[in-house]
Task: structure prediction
Amino acid sequence: MKVCVVGGAGYIGSHTVYELIDAGHEVVVVDNLSTGLKDAVHKDALFYEGDITDFAALDKIIADENRKKPFDVVMHFAAKIVVPESVKNPSLYYYNNVEGVRTLLDVMVKHNIKNIIFSSTAAVYGKAKDGVCTEESETKPINPYGETKLASEKMIGWFAHAYGMNYCIFRYFNVAGAHKTLEIGLLRDHLTHIVPVTIQTALGIREKMTVFGDDYDTFDGTCVRDYIHVSDIAYAHVLGMEHIANKNVSVIINLGSNQGFSVKNIISEVEKHYPVNHEYGARREGDPAKLIASNKRAKEILGWTPKRDLSEIILSDLEFRKKHKK
Ligand code: UDP
Result:
């Protein structure tokens, strides 16, 4: 299939491009390089610099490419994804994440592209009851990031209804790790996610880290999350795309491991390799105590289960950061 990957120079996007190319698909990447890196784009993918909120730019790229061979699928990764940043700057999140999706959908409608794969998040569930989320769980975000993703999900649903499109919405849990070649991984300034922060601390790239709250109602008082390797997530996109395009259907699917690990567990796992200089601090605004995926639907519909466990996630990110010194 011919696939347009918007945000394909970013973390999850670039890994998905690798999986798509390995599976024999033709890939065109569009990215504004705000957080993505041109070097992260697979050498066999075609690259255009463009912004998801810029209708004219997207329109031209798609029109030019469609003349060569029409796109079958669009994948959307070009989102802002940091919870605390969304709490401080909701406008940035609504503009980029919601207005960006609307623009992309308008371009898809104009060029009659029927299939969209959309990156959503466990943050749409908010404070899920008992912390375990099925796709049927109530969606009640507790931060602007989750709100913007939920708004986009609903918008995609209405566009699909109006224009006969198919969608595969993936709700990611906590994504971490790097590609087995160590060529791509999560590289950017001011990382905030727990796995890279812990590993950077272990490697001395940062002096120390803070655990945000140890008084949550969880087994050790720190927040519990479901960690999933980026290459497992990326491969699910190949399966999701083939599923909706071939069967002409739409689905919402959790991508997680069905297992929860606390912040303390992450630190202990990294400390199997190096000590981690950490302290305990106040809770961070917008954090639910526990988020774990039910991944039953991914297994039933796509035959997908994660192949890599927490120790592999940590080891691959560790090796990646050792190599890139970042
Ligand atoms: N966390 C932490 N210290 C850090 C970064 C994150 O204690 O320096 C905690 C955070 O409060 C949350 C968990 O780690 O409980 C996962 O946060 P992350 O930002 O990695 O992902 P999120 O679940 O917010 O998407």
